Fold these 2 entries.
Entry 1:
Amino acid sequence: MLGVRCWHGCLWRKRLETQIIKQERIFGIEFARACCAIGIIIFHYFCHSAGSFKFLFATANDSWGHMFVTAFFAISGAVLYYNYPQIESLKVFYFKRWKSIFPAYYLCFLFFFLRNIFQNHKLFYAGNPLKLAFTLLGMDGYFLYKYSNYYIVGEWFLGAIIMLYLLYPFLVYVMNKKMFIIPIFLIMGYVSMYCTDLFEIMKFTNLITCMTSFYIGMIFIKFKDLFFKNKISWMVSLLILVVMRFVKFPNFVFFHQIQGLSLLVVLVQLGNCVMMTRWKSFFTELSKMSFSIFLFQHVVILDMQGVFNPEKWYKILVILFATIVLTLICAKILLIVVNYLTNSKLFKILESKFAI
């Protein structure tokens, strides 16, 4: 009888903990992530569109694509700091980060790699097979500016986020000890970026720039009541978006990032309201699919526009809608396959090696 009571007590506590965790979730971030995922599809679609009609394409200062990517980096930093304000085990942390990226990435790459093999009638159609090492590390898109390789999916963003995940334990340690050190380092990085030839990569894709957005996302979550729940910060961010939409500022990369960071604040606070409606489950599902969407979107866009690339605005919108739907279908299928794979007995054995 005592055992039954203990079991019921444990079950009750577990349910209570689950409810607390759900209450603590910042649903506005899920809404923002979902919006940015769809926004990236729209932006890249119009990058390759044959028509003159553009939507969510550019502002007076920068492209919407850069704004969405800046928001994505900040979301990644915010979510990581929310879930891991300190790192208890590097082994567990790095395995979870690997699990969140590489199974989906490898499966998506393998699908298109096999397609390219059949199209080119050659196994190593892009030359030296050693170049596949970039792909195995998830760095093929990031280093494409310097080395030709077998890049297909993931783009430069994937390589940047992998490096930031590797650096995160150091960033969170320094942030919790002496928060001002990282901004000093980043300022020195910007100075080097503009005053030396040390960096060959584009300024926006430079790791200093990416780390800035990522770190500010950590700050946003550290002071979440100020940035994600405060009406004044929402109005200021909205004002920044409106002004920078029409007024040209100096061509400094951090000014470009300000747009993306302001967009994130606006979307999160808007999402706090939207996610209280019946649309909550829809945006939550889109948020879960965001990485899979990111992997598929550019290839699907190019394939669709290779067949249909109209110039009339109403036809453009029809093909855009079809492209978004097809991308979501592909992303959902990939997510199902990855969930099946990561829940398999073989994967669970692998995962147990990295358990606490």
Entry 2:
Amino acid sequence: MSWQAHGLCYGVGLEVKTWLDKGFSVLLNGSRAELSQAQQCFGSDLVPIVVNVELDVLRTRLQNRGRESREEIELRLQRASEFALSEQDGFYPIDNSGNVQSSARQFRDIRSQLEGKS
């Protein structure tokens, strides 16, 4: 599967299906705009975990890293708003508005929930 975002091209190779067929767990960083494409590719093997961040936090982070122009930052924020998902969309959310330890803890909690279901 492949997509474009933020002026860049992204993709996930066919080897992922091979790994899944061998029973491996695979963690992918994708685009919420391409979630339906991922669901078509991976079907019931896909467990969507969506990383969200408050828009003001995202703005500050983008400004601080200094790679995007003011206009590019506004486009990123607009895109984030357009592709916002609600928990009713069938995914596990992570709020990445805090520090990395908080996000990692949320991921571990989700992983524990999923392991408990098997």
